[in-house]
Specification:
The chain is α+β, with helices and mostly antiparallel strands. It contains 3 helices and 3 strands; from the N terminus they run αααβββ. A 3-stranded antiparallel β-sheet has the order 1-2-3, with no helix packed on it. The model has no long low-confidence stretch (mean pLDDT 91).
Length: 71
C-alpha cells in the first residue's frame, strides 16, 4: 500500500482499497469483509509510517485490540 502511494502516486485511500475492498468484491465477500463498518468482520492493523519505514502500532482481531505498541 505504501509503495503504491509513494512510488506511483496513488492516493492512500485508493491504495488501501486495492488491498482490501477490491479483492473482497472480486470474490463476492464484500458484504462482510473489505471495509470497516458496523456488522462487518474487523481484522485490521494500524500502521505508523515514518522515515520510509512502516511500523505496525495496533492489531485488531474480531473487533478486539490484540496489540498496542507505542511509537
Amino acid at each position: 500500500i505504501f509503495k503504491l502511494n509513494n512510488e506511483y502516486g496513488i492516493p492512500l485511500p485508493y491504495a488501501v482499497n486495492f488491498a482490501t475492498l477490491n479483492p473482497a468484491k472480486a470474490v463476492n465477500i464484500s458484504d462482510n469483509y473489505g471495509s470497516i463498518a458496523v456488522g462487518k468482520k474487523a481484522d485490521f492493523i494500524i500502521v505508523h509510517y515514518s522515515n520510509s519505514i512502516p511500523k505496525v502500532t495496533k492489531v485488531i482481531v474480531s473487533g478486539k485490540l490484540k496489540l498496542d505498541m507505542f511509537i
